[in-house]
């Protein structure tokens, strides 16, 4: 049978990039997917791609929206917390607003999603939570990713803590730590740098030992594994998928 048949999955930031690739991978593997994002146009085009994908607008910074959505649409077997915001800069480039925005989207959002979904998982004695961290975290110091890396390190702590608390109650919690992945937001960051876009792409690629960036589908494959019962013995872990960048 299919790898995710009978499972209901909630995904944040599913409109683009890794979240979108994962929504499609989960649906193709037999899951019922509730894909959420703040970009309703992106959600509409995603829903058109597979009949097992339902969509709803969700801003992860809104704890009230999160609670209402889970109450109405839960319980879920799988939660993929994919939403994230990349602030570029050193500590000296980081003002309070950028710091708070980084935490609000990358950490507070995840806290509220996990807290909303966990009771339904515990009640049924099963569930898999997958949290999007990054190699830029407690794993590797990356220049100009100060606030981002602090929040992604917090995601690893959040993940391991939840895993420890519920390890005997059927709920698993794991983190994914990608290197540089070719997604729309990376394209936007390249455009925002201004000047020679080809040169900026080359500099992203130049730091890759494999000589290429990752593809969203390569991260979705790991999320699918962690969502499925194939990974039943795996919890509290941080999975690096970075083409050897942090090695
Ligand atoms: P992306 O930028 O391509 O897509 C992001 C999506 O998030 C968009 O559809 C956007 O509308 C949505 N979004 C933004 N703010 C939101 C909010 N408040 N609530 C809900 N949705 C919101 O994304 P991506 O590059 O695939 O990144 C996804 C995750 O992967 C992020 O957590 C990111 O930090 C992480 N990550 C990405 C890379 C990379 O190189 N792309 C590397 C490591 C980790």
Descriptive report:
β2, α2 and β3 (53-57) form a beta-alpha-beta unit. This protein has a 7-stranded parallel sheet, sandwiched between helices. Helices cover 46% and strands 15% of the residues. The protein has 2 domains: 8-179 and 215-240, 3-Layer(aba) Sandwich (Rossmann fold), CATH 3.40.50.720; 183-213, no CATH class. The chain has helices at 17-28, 40-47, 63-73, 96-124, 146-166, 184-193, 197-206, 216-227, and strands spanning 8-11, 32-37, 53-57, 78-81, 127-132, 171-178, 238-241. The chain is globular, with a radius of gyration of 17 Å. The longest helix has 29 residues, at 96-124. The chain is of the alpha/beta class and 247 residues long. Nicotinamide-adenine-dinucleotide is lined by residues 12-13, 15-19, 37-39, 42, 58-61, 82-84, 86, 105, 132, 134, 178, 180-181, 183-186.
Question: What structural keywords apply?
Answer:
7 strands, single chain, SDR_DHRS6-like, 247 residues, 15% strand, binds nicotinamide-adenine-dinucleotide, 2 domains, 46% helix, Rossmann fold, oxidoreductase, alpha/beta, 7-stranded parallel beta sheet
CATH superfamily of the largest domain, by name, is: NAD(P)-binding Rossmann-like Domain
At the first level of CATH, the class of the largest domain is Alpha Beta
Mean pLDDT: 97
For the record, the count of structural domains works out to: 2
The CATH architecture term of the largest domain is 3-Layer(aba) Sandwich
**What ligand species are in this complex?**
nicotinamide-adenine-dinucleotide
Residue share in helix: 40-55%
Shape: globular
| Record field, number of beta strands | 7
InterPro entries: NAD(P)-bd_dom_sf, Sc_DH/Rdtase_CS, SDR_DHRS6-like, SDR_fam
Pfam families: adh_short_C2
Organism: Dyella mobilis
Protein name: SDR family oxidoreductase
């Amino acid at each position: 049978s299919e790898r995710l048949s009978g499972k209901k999955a909630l995904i944040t930031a599913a409109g683009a990039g890794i979240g979108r690739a994962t929504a499609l991978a989960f649906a193709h593997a037999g899951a019922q997917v509730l894909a959420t994002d703040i970009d309703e146009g992106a959600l509409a085009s995603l829903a058109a791609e597979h009949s097992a994908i339902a969509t709803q607008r969700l801003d992860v910074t809104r704890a009230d929206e999160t609670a209402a959505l889970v109450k109405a649409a839960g319980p879920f077997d799988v939660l993929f917390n994919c939403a994230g915001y990349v602030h570029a800069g050193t500590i000296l480039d980081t003002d309070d607003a950028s710091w708070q925005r980084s935490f609000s989207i990358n950490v507070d959002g995840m806290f509220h999603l996990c807290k909303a979904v966990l009771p339904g998982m515990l009640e049924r004695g099963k569930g898999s939570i997958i949290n999007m961290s990054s190699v830029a975290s407690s794993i590797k110091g990356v220049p100009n990713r100060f606030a981002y890396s602090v929040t992604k390190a917090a995601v690893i702590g959040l993940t391991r803590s939840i895993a420890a608390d519920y390890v005997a109650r059927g709920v698993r919690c794991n983190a994914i730590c990608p290197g540089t992945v070719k997604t729309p937001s990376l394209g936007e960051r390249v455009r925002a740098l201004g000047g020679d876009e080809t040169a900026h792409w080359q500099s992203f690629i130049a730091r890759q030992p494999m000589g290429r960036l990752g593809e969203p589908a390569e991260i979705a494959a790991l999320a699918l594994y962690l969502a499925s019962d194939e990974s039943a013995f795996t919890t509290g872990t941080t999975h690096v998928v970075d083409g050897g960048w942090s090695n």
